[in-house]
Amino acid sequence: MAARKPPAPVLAKPVGEVPAGSLATLRREARGCRRCPLWRHATQTVFGEGPASAAMMLVGEQPGSHEDLQGEPFVGPAGTLLRTLLEEAGIDASALYLTNTVKHFKYEMRGKARLHKRANASEQEACRPWLAAELARVRPRVVVALGAMAAQTLFGGGFRLTREHGRWHDLGPGTRGLATWHPSAILRMRDPDRGAARAQLAAALASAARRLAS
C-alpha cells in the first residue's frame, strides 16, 4: 500500500476554493486566469516549474521581464544568482519546485523599458489559490520564501524579514519553511549591504539543505 501523503501546507492567509488537479492541469488552467487585471498586459502566465515530487519548494514574489517573456520562473539575472547560491549550498536546482506568489508580470513603462511594479494586495489575494494548489500538489518538506511578499503570504502579514530572517516556521504536518532575501533585491543593493544580504541568502539555503538532508 502506498504511503499516505501528509496534509498540504497551509498559507497564513485564507484562499477560498483551491484549484485541484495535476501540475499540468493547474498550469493549463492558470494560462486562462482572469482573477485580477494583471493578465491584460503580461505576455503570459508564469506558473511554477519542477517535479511534483520535489522535497523543497522555493517561492518568489512575482515574475520579472525575463520570466514574462520566457514563461518560466527565475530565468533572469536574479535566477542566475539564485542558481549559483543553490550550487554552493549543494542543492540540485533541477530537483526543486520553483514558483512565485503572483503569476503575472506587473510593470510600468519608463520610455521603452518595462519597470517592475509590486502587485497590490488584491492582486496578491487573487493569486493565492494558485500557490495553495501548488503546495497541495507538491507537498514539499521544506519551503523557502524569497522576499517579503512571499514570506507574508506564507507566514502572515505581521512577518518582518529583517527580524525573522532564517527562522524556521511550521507550515503544516511534515512541512517547515523559512524566509530570506529575494536575489533581485540583493542585486539592487550596494555594498556592503549587498555582500551581507548575499551571505544571509547563502546561509538560509545551506540551512534548508541541512534540514532536507536530516
Mean pLDDT over all positions: 93
Figure out the total of helices: 8
**What is the distance, rounded to the nearest whole angstrom, between the alpha carbons of the first and last residues?**
25 Å
Strand order of the largest sheet: 2-1-5-7-6
**Fourth-tier CATH superfamily name:** Uracil-DNA glycosylase-like domain
**What form results from the Cα inertia axes?**
globular
Per the CATH scheme, the topology name is Uracil-DNA Glycosylase, subunit E
Helical amount:
25-40%
CATH hierarchy class name: Alpha Beta
What would you say this structure looks like, in words?
- The protein is α/β, with parallel strands linked by helices and 214 residues long.
- It has one domain: Uracil-DNA Glycosylase, subunit E (3-Layer(aba) Sandwich), CATH 3.40.470.10.
- It is 39% helix and 15% strand.
- The chain has 8 helices and 7 strands; from the N terminus they run αβααβββαβααββαα.
- It has helices at residues 23-31, 65-70, 77-88, 121-138, 148-155, 161-164, 183-188, 193-213, and strands at residues 56-60, 97-100, 107-110, 113-116, 142-146, 169-172, 175-180.
- Strands 2-1-5-7-6 form a 5-stranded mixed β-sheet, sandwiched between helices. Strands 3-4 form a two-stranded antiparallel ribbon.
- Strand 3 (107-110) and strand 4 form a beta hairpin.
- The longest helix has 21 residues, at 193-213.
- It is globular and about 45 Å long.
- The mean pLDDT is 93.
Main attributes of the structure:
214 residues, alpha/beta, Uracil-DNA Glycosylase, subunit E, two-stranded antiparallel ribbon
